[in-house]
Amino acid sequence: MRALHPSAIGRATRTLLADLGHAARLLLRLVLLFPAAFRRPRLVADQIHFLGNYSLAIITVSGLFVGFVLGLQGYYTLQRYGSSEALGLLVALSLVRELGPVVSALLFAGRAGTSLTAEIGLMKAGEQLAAMEMMAVDPVQRVLAPRFWGGVIAMPLLAAVFSAVGVIGGWVVGVLMIGVDAGAFWSQMQNGVEVFADIGNGVIKSVVFGITVSFVALLQGWICKPTPEGVSRATTRTVVLASLAVLGLDFILTAMMFSI
């Protein structure tokens, strides 16, 4: 095995730092373009519809079946300790704290993130972004910013739908199919779930995941090679990088939120 030459290591390090700097500058521009993006709210609304409404089916179905599994597995686990009445609390906390934001973000990366990357990549391959620059139109403000903020807004809404449908799925399995007392199911959930400590932290997670997935998707489309092969590789990188980023950030946020 050949040893790496120090110059090769230096070039790789310099390239990595340059890429990170470019990504940081683009993220800063997107954040600073928040007022400009909402001067044309129709553009942002269209992106919320495109990213959120078209992802609603897979989010709803996935949330329902996750609720089914949580209800079934949670009941048989709690039954060992005579605490089957706490099934509603188990389902709700599992969804609003972890599974709702995380699974929704992973599905959002696979459904909406790839669409964003492919759309920006095809616009770059078709020289539409270059044509905007020739007409003195900033493509970051006109194209990227509305999609970025549309994804940031859509992600918490999808996570909320996922969690709500998951709770209904847990209720169907626990109460209707197994026979857990409905009053105990809902009362334990109502008494045990805190708005700020549980639901609020889940909302914060979903917002962070929305920023992460939307930015990764737009960045990969922005820097991809303007060829069919380059666009296809960019969409693959979007799913891989966004999924890894979501899982890593979930650990960091959980450690910060629930260890204080």
Quickly give the structural class. mainly alpha
Total domain count: 1
Report how far apart the termini are. Answer: 48 Å
Q: How many runs of DSSP E, i.e. beta strands?
A: 0
- What is the helix fraction of residues, given as a range? over 70%
> Mean pLDDT, as a whole number?
89
- What is the number of helical segments per DSSP (H or I, 4+ residues)? 10
Specify the overall morphology.
elongated
Extract low-pLDDT stretches. Answer: none
Computed over alpha carbons, the radius of gyration is 22 Å
**Major sheet description:** none
Give the SSE order as H and E letters: HHHHHHHHHH
Strand content: under 5%
Folded structure, characterized:
- The chain has 260 residues and is an all-alpha fold.
- It has one domain.
- Helix content is 86%, strand content 0%.
- It contains ten helices and no strands.
- The protein has helices spanning 6-32, 34-37, 41-52, 56-79, 87-125, 128-134, 139-178, 182-192, 195-223, 228-258.
- Helix 3 (41-52) packs parallel to helix 7, helix 4 packs parallel to helix 7 (139-178) and helix 9 (195-223) runs antiparallel to helix 10.
- The chain is elongated and about 65 Å long.
- 39% of the residues are buried.
Describe how the helices and strands are arranged.
Layout: H1 6-32, H2 34-37, H3 41-52, H4 56-79, H5 87-125, H6 128-134, H7 139-178, H8 182-192, H9 195-223, H10 228-258
Structure summary:
86% of the residues lie in helices and 0% in strands. It is an all-alpha fold and 260 residues long. It has one domain (48-258).
